[in-house]
Amino acid sequence: MVSFEQAFSDMEKTAASTAKSSADLTKLARTLEKAAKDGNIAAAKRAQHSMREALNALQQEVANSVESWPFGDDEEQQYLSDGYSSELRTVAAERGLEIYERDGRMIAHPSIVRVLPGSRAVRIDRKQVSAIRPTRLTDILLNNQRKPPRFRADRFLESLYQVYAEVTREEGPSGMMTGRQGRVVELERVYRLFTSLPGSDREYDRTDFTRDLYLLDRDGPKTTRRGLQVSFPASSGTRVSRGVFSFVAPDGQVVTYYGIQFSEIG
């Protein structure tokens, strides 16, 4: 089956041909209008004859445009489910954009792309985008890379601490204690509290959360306003999939997170 990129390209060409034929017919109509104003019978008859030919050509171009999309409804959804991500990655690579797949998501730093077959769209981070022609979507993702980052690492850090403090407070004196390190809390518990509202895990899924952890860990602040330092200790849990959050760095390396800890400095 033809790719989406080729299908959209063919449709674009037939639409351009239709627009040109329509413009030609409009031009002839203006010629006829002028001939009528002047009372020039010969010129009017020539214009009418040319208009019939132009109309026939336009009708054929319209038919070509209407029939230019080769996918049926079921085929569209099937291709978006099975073949689209591979095509997008190939087209993006040709334009110098690396896209990695992880947990059913495509990662084009800093964007996370989810294919929505039923909507004939994709979701880039939290925004649904209907422009899914691979070259066009690649341009959007490249433009996102050039934009200043919108991620507020400081706010994310404070939110993490608030949830962490809630978890440790519920567990009594084994939590934060003056002059000591706090206990390690599984990130799985933190994420569940982050997404405790109904439907929030669809708007902010595990990949989003792990991306933000990575950005904080890589470039963000490490100390809260209260002077507590964050760290992400590894655990034996990282050797199994349960409770582990994984992400792909810009160089393609897989990074994993399991626990979080806040400690007093000094």
Quick structural gist:
This protein is an alpha+beta fold and 266 residues long. The chain is built from nine helices and ten strands.
Task: Write up this protein.
The radius of gyration is 29 Å and the shape is elongated. It has helices at residues 4-38, 41-66, 73-82, 84-94, 134-146, 153-170, 187-194, 200-203, 206-219; strands at residues 100-102, 105-108, 111-116, 121-124, 127-129, 185-186, 228-231, 245-248, 254-257, 259-264. Strand 2 (105-108) and strand 3 form a beta hairpin. It folds into three domains: 4-66; 73-146, no CATH class; 153-264. Helix content is 52%, strand content 15%. The mean pLDDT is 90. With 266 residues, it is of the alpha+beta class. The strands form three sheets. It has a five-stranded antiparallel β-sheet, covered by helices on one side. The chain has a three-stranded antiparallel β-sheet with strand order 6-10-7. It is built from nine helices and ten strands.
Low-confidence stretches: none
Strand order of the largest sheet: 1-2-3-4-5
The portion of residues forming beta strands comes to 15-25%
Determine the fraction of residues in helical runs and give it as a percent range. 40-55%
Q: Give the SSE string.
A: HHHHEEEEEHHEHHHEEEE
- Tally of contiguous helical segments: 9
Q: Which whole number gives the mean pLDDT?
A: 90
Number of domains: 3
Shape summary = elongated
Major sheet attributes: 5 strands, antiparallel
* Structural class by SSE content: alpha+beta
- Please compute the radius of gyration using only Cα atoms: 29 Å
Number of strands: 10
Euclidean distance between termini CA atoms:
64 Å
Quaternary state reads single chain
